[in-house]
Amino acid sequence: QVQLVESGGGLAQAGGSLRLSCAASSSTFSRYAMGWFRQAPGKEREFVAAIDWRGRYISYGESVKGRFTISRDSSKDTIYLQMNSLKPEDTAVYYCAGRIGNTYDSWGQGTQVTVSS
């Protein structure tokens, strides 16, 4: 497993932008596929975006397509989530996660994103 630490959350206005970062502590980070998930109060965890270990294959949840961009910088052992055109419904705790196999088995502690209308 790899230790993950998210940062960059905070308060934004609707229509604004935020960039989340997720720093990994393992030298094997480059082997991990990474993802972003979010969970709003009273709701189930939702898939946001994922990127494979080489950065070639990327996928997004339907609710964020065209607004969010996932990327990775393996030289810094970090992934990013650029969030544009934010909506109040994007308010949630955002988690990054990593996997080598089929299951995400490394999770960060989460960072709060709040979007005001």
Explain the overall architecture.
By secondary structure, the protein is mainly beta. The protein has strands spanning 4-7, 10-13, 18-24, 33-39, 46-51, 58-60, 68-73, 78-83, 92-99, 106-107, 111-116. The strands form 2 sheets. Strands 2, 4, 5, 6, 9, 10 and 11 form a 7-stranded mixed sheet that branches. A hairpin with a 6-residue loop joins strand 5 and strand 6 (58-60). The N and C termini lie far apart (38 Å).
Provide mean pLDDT, rounded: 95
- Tell me the major beta sheet: 7 strands, mixed
In sequence order, what are the helices and strands, one letter per element?
A: EEEEEEEEEEE
Number of helices: 0
Radius of gyration: 13 Å
Structural class: mainly beta
State the total count of DSSP E strands. 11
Key structural traits:
globular; single chain; 7-stranded mixed β-sheet; 117 residues; mainly beta; 11 strands
Write a brief structural summary.
The chain has 117 residues and is an all-beta fold. It has strands at residues 4-7, 10-13, 18-24, 33-39, 46-51, 58-60, 68-73, 78-83, 92-99, 106-107, 111-116.
